[in-house]
Amino acid sequence: MLNNGQILGGEATLWSEKTDIQTMEMKLWPRGSALAERLWSNPEKSRTRFAYPRLINHRERMVQRGIR
């Protein structure tokens, strides 16, 4: 939800019946990262070609930290 170009809030959901402790991190963090990219990027000025390198770099950081 946007108000004068500022984010009021956002939410990423993860259904507990679709995941367990073994798969939670590998589902939660990538989805949260993609949502954050969408919420904090200006859709009128930003294109996906600019988002892809940021998401790839973030994925590499998560892998280095042990998040599959």
Detailed description of the structure:
The chain contains 2 helices and 2 strands. The model has no long low-confidence stretch (mean pLDDT 80). Strand 1 (2-3) and strand 2 (6-7) form a beta hairpin. It has helices at 24-40, 48-64; strands at residues 2-3, 6-7. Helix 1 packs antiparallel against helix 2. The chain has a two-stranded antiparallel sheet.
Question: What order do the helices and strands come in, and which of them pair?
Answer:
Elements: E1 2-3, E2 6-7, H1 24-40, H2 48-64
Antiparallel strand pairs: 1-2
Helix pairs in contact: 1-2
InterPro entries: Beta_hexosaminidase_sua/sub, Glyco_hydro_20_cat
Keywords: Hydrolase, Signal
GO molecular function, one term: beta-N-acetylglucosaminidase activity
Uncertain segments:
none
Write down the overall mean pLDDT: 80
Cα shape: flat
Helix-strand makeup class? mainly alpha
Q: Would you report the number of β strands?
A: 2
**Biggest sheet strand line-up:** 1-2
Q: Approximately how much helix is present in the residues?
A: 40-55%
Terminal CA distance: 30 Å
Number of helices, where a helix is a run of at least 4 consecutive DSSP H or I residues: 2
The radius of gyration over CA amounts to 14 Å
Order of helices and strands: EEHH
Main sheet record:
2 strands, antiparallel
Strand composition percent: 5-15%
